[in-house]
TrEMBL record:
One of its GO terms (molecular function) is dioxygenase activity. Gene3D superfamilies: 3.30.390.30, FAD/NAD(P)-binding domain. Residues 328-399 form the Reductase C-terminal domain. Keywords: Dioxygenase, FAD, Flavoprotein, Oxidoreductase. This is Phthalate 3,4-dioxygenase ferredoxin reductase subunit. Its cofactor is FAD. SUPFAM superfamilies: FAD/NAD(P)-binding domain, FAD/NAD-linked reductases, dimerisation (C-terminal) domain. It comes from the Bacteria.
Length: 409
């Protein structure tokens, strides 16, 4: 259904998952006005999860890379989308409704969708060479080349992306050490039971886990690096990948009047606070999460995609409810598939269903302090995930979710 204002010019800044899905959604839902998609990268939009998974292990042939593009120039042209790649937005005037670009030009808008995502948090340690970070296709290609040397690697950061890189490195025969100041780095998301199993999984595959120990410096150069730890020890390595989180791309919005902080603050309908007809979606957006009762900036594929669809629907006259997140995340760790829906309340409790070592699969049902279910983590159990997702959405109590999972074959 198209709205009475479907002739408005929509400008989308950020040509990745959220931006691409937003323009596709607008056209699919009948938006007839002009659409401009602006991206800082010279690349056609591509998917990021494969950068630490399949692509890292691929042969980097043109076909392998093409398989992870989110769209094609032809498809965007056919959809009537004006594409401006390789040019970053450098400023925003919300009164004149103009986006300024790095090439000195500017683009006027009726509606602006901010989808500039995030970058890898820069490494505080900068030796002459040998430190890699992962956010872009070029980063993934550079890391893949390094892994193929089979030389020792230190991964700083034991989150999902760091451990996926570690798993790929082990596959190339690298001697791998993962360092993280937190004792069980993934516990915040998956809870201590699954986090402990994941540490064991990496060790069984030959990666060393140095958890609960922080890095104080990285010195030397590619091929001869020293990673200094806060327990006084040093790891000699050829290269290091630093994966210590990400920061939202909001520099270009300074002085625009939008409410910036950890991302672009929006209301519950993803409208940027501080300007009319401006939305923020994907990794750059911070919005009031209805279930959690706090402002959240998610860095997850499904959220970016869902928010794009939500705003496209809103702009074509189709939503009245605030955005409700599915909070779905997945990770591949060696041959294990980890899935999470919802969230884990650190003040709540968790119930474990099935024994990973014995059954090869498990689920953890998280509840908040009041005993209400907030999320579920599964390992190698897609049927369990689907069942839990349905029961969570139906508002079933935690005991029922646990009981139904226990009965599932
Ligand atoms: C290695 C890796 C693995 C991942 N694996 C998973 C996974 O397994 N599961 C999962 O749920 N999620 C995963 N994610 C997260 C997921 O990819 C992100 O949530 C998703 O890419 C967010 O999309 P986005 O469009 O909001 O932002 P981004 O993908 O960050 O894209 C933002 C785009 O905006 C551009 N941009 C930035 N500033 C400007 C500017 N000023 N002007 C113009 N353009 C600009 C950037 O160049 C970029 O192309 C992974 C991410 C990475 C990096």
């Amino acid at each position: 259904m198209s709205s009475p204002q479907s002739d408005r010019h929509v400008v989308v800044v950020g040509a990745s998952l959220a931006g691409t899905r937003a323009v596709e959604g607008l056209r699919a839902l009948g938006h007839a006005g002009h659409i401009t998609l602006i991206g800082a990268e010279a690349e056609l939009p591509y998917d990021r999860p494969p950068l630490s998974k399949d692509l890292l292990k691929s042969d980097w042939s043109d076909d392998a890379v093409a398989g992870f593009r989110l769209t094609s120039a032809e498809a965007l042209t056919a959809a009537g989308v004006e594409l401006k790649l390789g040019v970053a937005a450098t400023g925003l005037d919300t009164v004149a409704r103009v986006v300024r670009l790095a090439d000195g030009t500017s683009v006027g808008y009726d509606v602006l969708i901010i989808a500039t995502g995030a970058i890898a948090r820069p490494s505080p340690w900068r030796p002459e060479s040998g430190v890699f970070q992962l956010r872009t296709l070029a980063d993934s290609r550079a890391i893949a080349e390094q892994l193929r040397t089979g030389a020792p690697l230190v991964v700083v950061g034991g989150g999902f992306i760091g451990t996926e890189i570690a798993a790929a490195a082990v596959g190339f025969g690298c001697s791998v050490t993962v360092v993280d100041p937190v004792a069980e780095p993934m516990a915040r998301i998956v809870g201590p039971d699954v986090a402990g199993s994941l540490v064991g999984l990496h060790e069984r595959h030959g990666a060393q886990a140095r958890f609960g120990v922080g890095v104080t410096d990285i010195r030397g150069k590619l091929g001869a690096l020293e990673v200094l730890l806060d327990d006084g020890s040093t790891i000699d390595t050829a290269a290091a990948v630093v994966g210590i989180g990400s920061i939202p791309c909001i520099d270009w919005l300074e002085g625009s009047g939008l409410t910036l902080g950890n991302g672009v603050l929006t209301d519950g309908m993803l409208r940027a606070v501080g300007a009319d007809d401006v939305f923020a979606i994907g990794d750059v957006a911070r919005w009031p999460h209805p279930g959690r009762g706090v402002e959240v900036r998610a860095e997850h594929w499904t959220n970016a995609s869902d928010q794009a669809r939500y705003v496209a629907t809103a702009l074509t006259g189709g939503v009245s409810e605030p955005y409700g997140s599915t909070d779905y995340v997945w990770s591949d760790q060696y041959d294990w598939k980890v899935h999470t829906i919802g969230w884990r309340d650190p003040n709540g409790s968790s119930a474990l269903v099935r024994d990973l070592a014995r059954d090869g699969k498990t689920a953890v049902v998280h509840s908040n302090g009041a005993g209400e279910p907030t999320g579920v983590v599964t390992v190698n159990w897609v049927r369990g995930l689907n069942l839990a997702r349905r029961l969570l959405a139906a508002g079933d109590p935690a005991e029922r979710i646990v009981a139904e999972l226990e009965q599932l074959a």
